[in-house]
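Troubleshooting: if your tokenizer reports a length mismatch, compare your output against this known-good record of 74 residues.
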Amino acid sequence: MFQSIGIPGLILILVIALIIFGPKKLPEIGRAFGRTLTEFKSATNGLVSDEDKGEEENPELKTVKKDQDKEEVS
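Known-good structure output:
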């Protein structure tokens, strides 16, 4: 995604951000962005683990479905 930007493009983006937000606000914005990414990552991991737990908690649903398939074949 960011492969075509290159080093000069990143430097330009950082200079523009420094001009817009100033040297005092830039670290705060970076911290907030990092916290947001961490929170998003933990939330998505929680959703994935909830789905895995949900599948493991109801094994009889899978067996019932298999039993119905066997009856249809017979």
